[in-house]
Amino acid sequence: MTPSDVKATLSFSDGSPSIDLPLYKGSIGPDVIDIRKLYGQTGKFTYDPGFLSTASCQSTITYIDGDKGELLYRGYPIEQLATQCDFLDTCYLLLYGELPNEQKQKDFHKLVSEHTMVHEQMQFFLRGFRRDAHPMAVLTGLVGALSAFYHDSTDITNPKHRDIAAIRLIAKMPTLVAMAYKYGEGQPYVYPRNKLSYAGNFMRMMFATPCEDYEPNEVLVRAMDRIFILHADHEQNASTSTVRLCGSSGTNPFAAIAAGVACLWGPAHGGANEAALNMLEDIQRNGGVEKIGEFIKQVKDKNSSVKLMGFGHRVYKNYDPRAKLMRETCHEVLGALGLENDPLFKLAMSLEKIALEDEYFVARKLYPNVDFYSGIVQRAIGIPVSLFTAIFALARTVGWIAQLNEMIGDPEYKIGRPRQLFVGSPRRDVPPLAQR
Ligand code: CMC
Questions:
Q1: Angular region, 7: left φ>0, alpha ψ -120 to 50, beta rest
Q2: Any residues with Cβ below 6 Å from ligand 1, and which?
Q3: Which residue spans traverse the membrane (predicted)?
Q4: Known catalytic residue: 313?
Q5: What letter does residue 353 receive in the DSSP assignment?
């Protein structure tokens, strides 16, 4: 961290002595005030629920400028990565900091494809789930269970273990997600086919059956690859912070990533793509485009708790750059499949237009986020709504593991242990049962 000449001074109105706090400069983005010694010097904590103003770590991986609507992985704009690289190049970049040259690209693709199969015993583990279990419930279990199958990569303090766990997780996630899908469908699992691309292999494992192979459609494979790139990392969001916090205890990488999967499931985070599509289907069932006005009224009503899913973001107070790219892919996929007149897509476009012009959304800087379009694309590809978040988890795994490994390698890393403002009862004695 680069120290700044500027110091922050914290003073108190009760006459307590003021203190100077060091300031550090990032390479871009806001400076941070170092409050690590605050408690020792003042006996006070800071209070910041939801981490609205708190940097929990230093990182070199992903940078977001929410006001500009900019997203950079290792300095490269998401627009360039989405159009000039594939997902495995993006994985390499996130893990190792640079884009691969031709040889490294070849080696990395080979390395990942050598790890796509999962232990055969995994399918018996899967059998313990109900067939109608939510894929995210299944995936949380499967990812956590990897630590029971790959004992030789569970020591987070060993860099070799970290490396191999990273590759295993990236390689096996598509297999696990496809297995979770096939299990729910009651279809046999399809083994990976390593000569296919990462996205192509995933789609084959999803859609092929023993009686019929899957013929990859280039437009759809490219769309899937783009979904993976756009979701690969997003700085210190809830699931990434969960992975870091979980991993900070020294637990194994599979357990830490399983915690990330569990966190991602929530509708305010990764579950938003599923929630956005359910919302569109709901409006469609209840009158379609005609009923948008009524729906928007409910969204704006503070007493209704209805939200326009797929809109708004904690960091982006401008158009989510991923949403722009996903919108483009959405048009391409629907065009390739002849679905431009799909009623749900038309409904989404009308909703987007109305929301972008409405004073409520404009004043609060609520723009469509990536999930608004990714659900439509995935539905068009033939992916069931309940699997959307699992696909997000598949893509985000590389981000989680890159962030986890960065944390473990950081000399300033400590077990995460937030403090609290206690507002409960002071000490009291347990009364006898008859007096309670
Ligand atoms: N629909 C209606 N009103 C909204 C929405 C929305 N989607 N999002 C925010 N608002 C309102 C909110 O009610 C508040 O209004 P007021 O100031 O009058 O109280 C104002 O906008 C600020 O919202 P906030 O809740 O303080 O914002 P936040 O940063 O805490 O929440 C969010 C961000 C993503 C949780 C929220 O916008 C949301 O719930 N959106 C819908 C769910 C969604 O699409 N999530 C996916 C995020 S992108 C994928 C990812 O990276 O995980």
A1: beta
A2: 234, 237, 268-270, 272, 299, 307-314, 364, 366, 369, 371
A3: none
A4: yes
A5: H
